[in-house]
Amino acid sequence: MADTRNADLTFGATDYLVHLAPINTASPTAFADPAAPWVNLGWVATDGGTFTIEEESQDVNAAGSLEPIRTLMTRSTKSLQVTFLEGLNPVVRSLYDNVPIEDLAPTDGVTSYAFPDKPNDLRYAYVFDTVDGDKRMRFYMPNGKVVERGDEQPQTEDVMNVQMTFRFYKGATSAAVTRSIDYADIDVSSFFPAAP
Description:
The chain is mainly β and 196 residues long. Helix content is 4%, strand content 40%. The chain has one helix at residues 90-97; strands at residues 15-22, 39-40, 44-60, 70-84, 124-132, 135-149, 162-169, 178-182. Strand 5 and strand 6 form a beta hairpin. The protein starts with 14 loop residues before the first strand and ends in a 14-residue tail after the last strand. The mean pLDDT is 91.
């Protein structure tokens, strides 16, 4: 087998961008900068985002066999954790505090709002772009919401980080998660041999 190792296929994020739009907004054209109604959520910590797929299964056991006769996939959850650095960004604040964005509109520079007693089910479409020079990766999620929030800690030694975990669900017409990859000018044709 040919040696297909290529250092150009390594990927290290030099930038990480998160955009939000109303639920089920169509994905922007691959790797174009998202335009309205997409909104950028601002600066992200240098560790970028952590994408996780958790799958659960259940074995079906039967008499006459010491091994399961079948395995049922019972769950596949896709989530992404991000630490935002703009603690006063109205969109970030809205997601973390679980209040509609319009509740944060200031009057004379000030806003006040109550945290909901019963959690709101605020859902949006998301785009997560990772950049490494000319190489790019994009996650598009048409239907997601914040399911976990990190501790909030204003401090004197660093900016107040706002950490959230997003969970993604199937959209009205698309999968829960779609990944796009721009290989830039890297030739990956050797990974896809021609059919006989």
